[in-house]
Design goal:
- This protein has 232 residues and is an alpha/beta fold.
- The chain has one domain: Glycerol-3-phosphate (1)-acyltransferase (3-Layer(aba) Sandwich), CATH 3.40.1130.10.
- Helix content is 36%, strand content 20%.
- It contains seven helices and ten strands.
- The protein has helices spanning 20-39, 68-75, 94-100, 111-128, 152-160, 172-175, 202-219, and strands at 3-4, 41-46, 57-61, 80-85, 104-106, 131-134, 163-170, 182-183, 186-192, 227-230.
- The strands form two sheets. An eight-stranded mixed β-sheet has the order 5-4-6-3-7-9-2-10, sandwiched between helices. A two-stranded antiparallel ribbon has the order 1-8.
- The protein is globular, with a radius of gyration of 16 Å.
């Protein structure tokens, strides 16, 4: 069964900050599972055990579909926040769901503002033991091919003293391409790789991880960890 991709967030008009963790840990995963089930999308998650107790952490992911937001809702640990482009502030109902869970919006047209936002995010990650989810490509891939990694997320991880957990998402571009509005039946595979220590050289870390992502995607996510399956 196909589901309109416009239904991208639970319409819950609540604003208190204390609601953010319950929304992320209960409501958003429930909504993601329901959406995938109704759309006939099977999701396989491997390596979730790499997300242990709450700690300063940056989850980096390849980004080729709007569905990536729902995929991350399935694996996000307590204390998770997302960093996304400012343009999503004006896309209902996605904007409401993102605001409710404490999303950080970045204005990509203003480099100085973006740097300040990243610095504030890094300070919050360190101070409160948050997990920040971010796509180092900076935007969705229009073709499904991996884009070049930007250095910002790695500077953030260095400043925050946060470990980096690579998350590889496969199949999302086929199930909902950037030009589409309807979720197609299909299969998604999500692989969380072991945490890496905070980078000392963000430029080198970005180049290294980009290269490994290309290898992982070419290999089709060669992970040996047991899988958790949703919506099958």
């Amino acid at each position: 069964m196909a589901v309109a991709a416009a239904a991208c967030g639970p319409l819950i008009v609540l604003s208190a900050g204390w609601l953010r963790d319950p929304l992320l840990s209960v409501v958003m995963p429930w909504f993601a599972r329901a959406t995938f089930a109704l759309a006939g999308v099977a999701v396989e998650v491997r390596g979730a055990a790499h997300l242990g107790s709450r700690a300063p952490r940056v989850l980096v992911l390849n980004h080729s579909s709007t569905l990536d937001l729902l995929v991350m809702a399935l694996v996000a640990p307590p204390g998770a926040r997302a960093l996304v482009k400012r343009e999503l502030m004006w896309v209902p109902p996605v904007n409401l769901a993102l605001w409710l869970v404490g999303t950080i919006f970045v204005d990509r047209s203003d480099p100085a503002s973006s740097i300040r936002a990243l610095d504030r995010a890094a300070d919050d990650v360190r101070a409160y033991g948050l997990t920040l989810m971010i796509a180092p490509e900076g935007t969705r891939s229009r073709t499904g091919a991996l884009g070049a990694f930007k250095k910002g997320p790695f500077h953030l991880a260095k400043r925050a003293g946060a470990e980096i957990v690579p998350v590889v998402i496969e199949g999302a571009h086929t199930v909902l391409p950037p030009s589409g509005w309807v979720v197609r039946p299909g299969r998604l595979r999500v692989t969380l790789h072991p945490p890496e220590p905070p980078p000392t050289d963000p430029t080198a870390a970005a180049a290294s991880l980009e290269g490994r992502y290309r290898g992982w995607l070419a290999a089709g996510g060669a992970a040996t960890a047991p899988a958790t399956r949703y919506c099958e």
